Q: What sequence folds into this?
């Protein structure tokens, strides 16, 4: 795993928690911030996956 994969996973998880807290306390703004954080985390993780795949492909060529 690389830095982007790890940080992306952490942001995604934090966003899920933030969304759930917003849901529990009835704060739609907090829920949206959580969803946004999840999207950023998933995007960062996907970038990390691409980097990792490129690194692996480079090793095998």
A:
């Amino acid at each position: 795993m690389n830095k982007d994969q790890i940080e992306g996973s952490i942001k995604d998880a934090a966003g899920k928690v933030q969304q759930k807290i917003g849901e529990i306390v009835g704060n739609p703004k907090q829920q949206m911030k959580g969803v946004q954080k999840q999207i950023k985390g998933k995007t960062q993780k996907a970038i990390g996956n691409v980097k990792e795949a490129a690194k692996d492909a480079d090793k095998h060529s």
Remarks:
- The CA atoms of residues 15 and 37 lie 5 Å apart.
- The helical segments are 3-25, 28-59.
- The two ends are 20 Å apart (CA to CA).
- The longest helix spans residues 28-59.
